[in-house]
Amino acid sequence: MRKLIKGIDEKIGITEFYQKFLSGYMVPENLNFWYTLGSVCIFFFLIQVVTGVLLLMYYIPSVDKAFESVLFITNNVPFGWLIRRIHAVAAHLFVIALFLHMLSVIIMGSYKKPREINWITGCLLFALVLTACLSGYLLPWSQLSYWATTVATSIPETIPYIGKWLVFLIRGGEKITQITLSRFFALHVVIIPSLIFLLITIHIIVMRRVGISYPPGTDESKVKKIPFFPYFFLKDLRSIYLFFALTLLIVFFFPQLVFPKDAMVKADPLETPEKIKPEWYFLFNYQLLKIVPNEFLGIFIQILLALVILLLPFIDRNPERRIWKRPLFFMSVIFFILFYIFITVWGYLS
Predict the structure, then answer these.
(1) What would the pLDDT profile of 185-230 be if each residue is shown by its tens digit?
(2) What is the per-residue pLDDT for 9?
(3) Among residues 228, 235, 233, 232, which one has the least CA distance to residue 21?
(4) Residue 99 backbone phi and psi in degrees, to 5
(5) How many CB atoms lie within 10 A of CB 298?
(6) Where does the pLDDT of residue 180 fall: very low under 50, low under 70, confident under 90, or very high at 90 and above?
(7) Does residue 156 have a cis peptide bond before it, meaning omega lies within 30 degrees of 0?
């Protein structure tokens, strides 16, 4: 038996993989909770893939049958309600975990040289996850998903010259129709997950090549290194348990946070709800367009803001990573966070 196992190991190299990528991969001992959020994001991506595949077995991407198929999943398929709720709640927490991960990278200055590619791939991942959320939101074909998608996809319309063309390209027509549903379905189940997987792979490969960043202010020569597995892996698991517990808490006790009343009604393109808004992660963009007098200016501000964030490693060339040593940068980050929260809450309440 031992010879058989040894022979298989020699062929596929399990021991070599374990020693090279797990027990032999050394990380600083003083890594804190914030360094575990990357693993939390990967965990939520896997949840989306697994639960998404299970939902695909019963979901029908047709405007006539989509809502009924979702009802069938919820009411007739064993544990269908649970799988659907976990899929929906985990999507929201995926966005939150990714947002916190990027925020921690900004605060700790981990985007600086030589980790520019890590930062750029992280920004692209964030954009893809938001796109995945938008495309998946329409699939149940409920009153909420239909009109929230109508509002969200109309945002690019204010861009001069190409705005209407962009909206037409996204929707496949002037309004949300079967073509839109088919496009969003293809994006949600094939194209975007494949791109997310590719970017995660690049992100990890580059991180392994340049090494994980030390906490700011650390004397790297004095910090002991420990094997990633099992020591830091257990830290990752602790954070994953925490976020998964939060997922189950919402799934079992507060599902109305994700499934409000309009999510239980089939889409009716002829009946516009009184108050319809995009999902919370688009409320900042939505409300900013409302309060800026000129819509083009609102779009321009958002594009400029996105470019500044994307190119942050090339704009901020100061090698100092300790944010308390960079008061102007620190105040800018705090201001942006408060501004983002204020505009988002304003958009929710308005």
Answers:
(1) 999 999 999 999 999 999 999 998 998 888 998 888 888 888 888 8
(2) 78
(3) 228
(4) -60, -45
(5) 20
(6) very high
(7) no
CA angle 245, 248, 250 (to 5 degrees): 110
Are 102 and 207 contacting, i.e. CB atoms less than 8 angstroms apart?
no
Cα–Cα distance between 91 and 44 in angstroms, integer?
A: 7
pLDDT single digits (tens) 288-318: 888 888 878 888 899 999 999 999 999 998 8
Residue pair 87/188 in contact (Cβ under 8 Å)? The answer is no
φ/ψ of 13, rounded to 5, equals 70, 40
Q: What is the pLDDT of residue 13?
A: 78
Paired strand residues for 266: 142
Q: How far apart are the C-alpha atoms of 301 and 297, rounded to whole Å? A: 6
| Sign of the four-CA dihedral 14, 17, 21, 24 | positive
CB 204 within 8 A of CB 196: no
Give which of 347, 228, 205, 190 is closest to 283, Cα–Cα. Answer: 347
pLDDT > 80? residue 158: no
| Predicted TM-score of the model (pTM) | 0.91
